[in-house]
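Hey team,

Sharing the Small ribosomal subunit protein bS20 run so nobody has to redo it. Sequence (88 residues) first:
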Amino acid sequence: MANSAQARKRARQADKQRAHNASLRSTLRTAIKRVQKAIGAGDKAAAQTVYQESVAVLDRIADKKIIHKNKASRHKSRLSAQIKALAA
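Structure output:
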């Protein structure tokens, strides 16, 4: 356990930030799963609508550096490719 007042405060701040980051990561995963569910249902129009909402979530979380920007880009690219494959 932290001994100094400064270290105790930093430990409290770290716990609070960790909880906040976990919440954002959960939001990210939910957004991705919503798109995958729409793709699984085979409804291209619905999948595109949900995809646009999810892109906003991905970008926002990448800007906050919860995930790396390349990881967000990779998710967007793969989801977009799956949506395009629905038409074929």
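The CA atoms of residues 4 and 10 lie 10 Å apart.

Ping me if you want the raw files.
A.
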